[in-house]
Design brief:
The chain is α/β, with parallel strands linked by helices. Helices cover 33% and strands 21% of the residues. The strands form five sheets. Strands 5-4-1-13-14-15 form a six-stranded parallel sheet. The structure holds magnesium ion. Pfam families: GNAT_like, Hydrolase_6, Hydrolase_like.
Amino acid sequence: MLRASPDRLCEIYDLAMLDLDGVVYVGGRAVPGAPDHLESARKLGMRLAFVTNNASRTPETVAAHLVDLGIAAEPGDVVTSAQAAARLVARRIPARSRVVALGAEGLVAALQSEGLVVVGVEDEAQALVSGYGPDLRWSDLMRAAVRVRDGLWWVASNTDLSIPTAYGTAPGHGVLVDMLARFSGVTPEVAGKPARPLLDETVRRVGGTRPLMIGDRLDTDIEGARIAEVDSLLVLTGVTGLTELVAARVAERPTFIACDLRGLLEPHPSVTESGGATRCGGWSVSTSGGTLEVEGYGDAGDWWRAVAVASWRHLDEHGDVVDVTGLETPADAPAR
Ligand SMILES: [Mg+2]
């Protein structure tokens, strides 16, 4: 259920589509080791694309942030859900069409660079595009909601219900989408992960023929990769922990798992199942009685691989999630 790779992933995939928060940085800081791992992958021939569902920042702003964190990045290496939404709209209506932007600077810039004319919420328009915008006015939202209800074509940058902030997890653009949809009875077209347009737009802009999606979230990054028919690497430096991993639905299961971005630079061992035990490296996992038990020693990544495959097998066969109460994960997971 996980794929083995005798070759390093950076040698078999030529484009790394990297989610940002929880993969490259967490909050304001680079994930430990991430700048070096990315530089090594790039030296070994992998193109790097930084892919974000956040529609409020421009690629220039995101690239400058990455450079501040010690990661070489140009604006052309960054692809945002705002760009994917703008592209989606521009392909369907004539050039110079008027579009309402309900969001922030990054959304306006993306629409303009696709040759669309951004107008106010009161103005005649052929589409309305919404994205995360911390300074949105309630009066504009009300006007937008009524126009969408009355038939204005609506595209949403993404549907993330939460967004990480300096003061903790806060409501994301998905909360606004929910509210607008509930009022108007209209479901928007969505550009960002897990919908397909953002990953398609990434391949189109950055290039490459064998892309690999790298993310920390099962329901956006990993499910999005499956929808776009792209292989995926789950890293454990973000929001996915043991509880989420063992409960992953089939659509949320990655191709590969690694503790962190070092996983791009390594072969991935096979996970084998025999005699009721699931083995990877020095670890052996069983799920008898619905409780997950791990024995052995060795590589932290192998621990996660064996645990994932054993618990998914249990979930598929019994329909319930294994009990992991009290199970200790490798203490120093990212390091070894
Ligand atoms: Mg993330």
